Amino acid sequence: MKLTNLPLDFSSASLLAEANRCVACGLCLPHCPTYRITLSEADSPRGRIALMSGVASERIPMNARFALHIDRCLTCRACEAVCPNHVAYGHLIDGTRAMMTEASSALPKRDVTMQKSRLRTLVEREFIAKPTRLDAVRPLVRLYQTSGLQALVRKSGILGKTKFAAALEAQLPFVGIPCSASNKTAKSWQAIYPATGSLRGEIGLFLGCVARLADVATLNAAIFVLNRLGYTVHVPPTQTCCGALHQHGGDITTAEHLARQNMTAFDRLNLHAIISTASGCGVQLTESPLNSFIKVIDISDFLEKAEGWNDVRISPLPYKIAVHEPCSLRNVLHGAAHPYALLARIPGASIVPLSGNDQCCGAAGTYFLDQPEMAKVLLDDKIAAMDKSGGHYLATSNIGCALHMASALRQAGSKIEVLHPVTLLARQMGMPF
Ligand code: SF4
Ligand code: SF4
């Protein structure tokens, strides 16, 4: 294995060259969620690209006003998906944030919006970037939930004064236990889950960071379905976070370090593919050098084309399932159709798209924490669409979107269940939960 294409080229020259490819046609503007809200050119893709170009060429200063418009970008890449000139907006925004991070230490203290909090940096580097530490806290989080303390905390509103903690706690779903053939108190996932029946392939499963705690059900479901279809699942224990949060936050050094660690973890396993269950991680992995030596595929895409369906039984589910299309799946992986095809395997289910699927839900990594007002406008639209859909379930393929929407539905007293399409499928295939 060669560790090629690292480091990423986010030099001013590279950013300027890409920004200059924008012909300012404005076709992306109606697709941009932030432009739709503020109607300000500076909050549009075209306006942001002009600002980036101005700063990279030192024609305008990198100040708090510049940071405000860059920070408001969701990195949803809806603009990139419709750009006739194929301007690589994702590369531009990541590069610009890296440039801002590099410059932030030299900025005057009043430019507070450009300074990352120490706590945030600590969490991203010492917790998210080292996800085995999340495995270690799982028993404590489960105790917090099963002892009734969580219900008390939520009822008391005690976290209300600490907005950061309250926002995180509000999103915390019930935390499950990694599946294991022999041990009901498994600390993490096994290195190998052998296929049931005849072997059709050897694949790797990417766990992610937050998903290890907040989306155990989906990871277990992916293993269950893949095993039943005849695929042996490898879960290398040295894999780590995909680095998306770090890269989108301007911490390129950590993102590159994580990419190298993942390449080492999956190397030499002789896999047909690496499966990602969260489309946000899937984008980061497919755009990393990892994808050049092992194909990274979203779970719904892989399962749609997988063999072995004639050997499994799927129970009917006579309910409506509304499908949310995460920006990462729709705009970058171009795989929005796959979850529909997968859910169509469930007899009796009525599958409908959630209206407004062309707009971001506002979760966008840590956007809901950084830009809560903008995120709320976008979230309110999703909740209204969900109410209108009459859906019993809301299926989404990205953990960040799922937590964001589930939290709002829970607070509104809704009984709608938010879950990954593969979790629903696994249940109907008889997976015990
Ligand atoms: S669609 Fe592309 S070329 Fe046109 S303004 Fe937007 S980014 Fe620039
Ligand atoms: S990434 Fe999304 S929010 Fe940012 S400029 Fe493009 S469309 Fe707008």
Molecular structure report:
Helices cover 48% and strands 8% of the residues. Among the domains are: 12-114, Fumarate Reductase Iron-sulfur Protein, Chain B, domain 2; 313-428, Rossmann fold, CATH 3.40.50. The strands form two sheets. It has a five-stranded mixed sheet. Mean pLDDT is 90; it is low at 1-5 and 110-114. It is built from 22 helices and nine strands. It is globular and about 65 Å long. The chain has 433 residues and is of the alpha/beta class. One iron/sulfur cluster (SF4) is lined by residues 31-34, 45, 48, 73-79, 89.
How are the elements arranged and paired?
Elements: H1 12-19, H2 33-38, H3 45-56, H4 64-71, H5 78-82, H6 89-104, H7 118-128, H8 132-146, H9 149-156, H10 163-171, E1 192-193, E2 201-206, H11 210-214, H12 216-228, E3 231-234, H13 244-248, H14 252-266, E4 273-276, H15 279-286, E5 296-298, H16 299-305, E6 320-323, H17 327-332, H18 337-343, E7 350-353, H19 367-370, H20 372-389, E8 393-395, H21 399-411, E9 417-419, H22 421-428
Parallel strand pairs: 2-3, 2-4, 4-5, 6-7, 6-8, 8-9
Antiparallel strand pairs: 1-3
Helix pairs in contact: 1-3, 1-6, 3-6, 12-22, 16-18, 20-21
Bound molecules: iron/sulfur cluster (SF4) (2 copies).
In a few lines, what is going on in this structure?
The protein has 22 helices and 9 strands. With 433 residues, the chain is an alpha/beta fold.
Number of strands: 9
Report the major sheet. Answer: 5 strands, mixed
Widest sheet, order of strands: 1-3-2-4-5
Any low-confidence stretches, pLDDT <50, length ≥5?
Answer: 1-5, 110-114
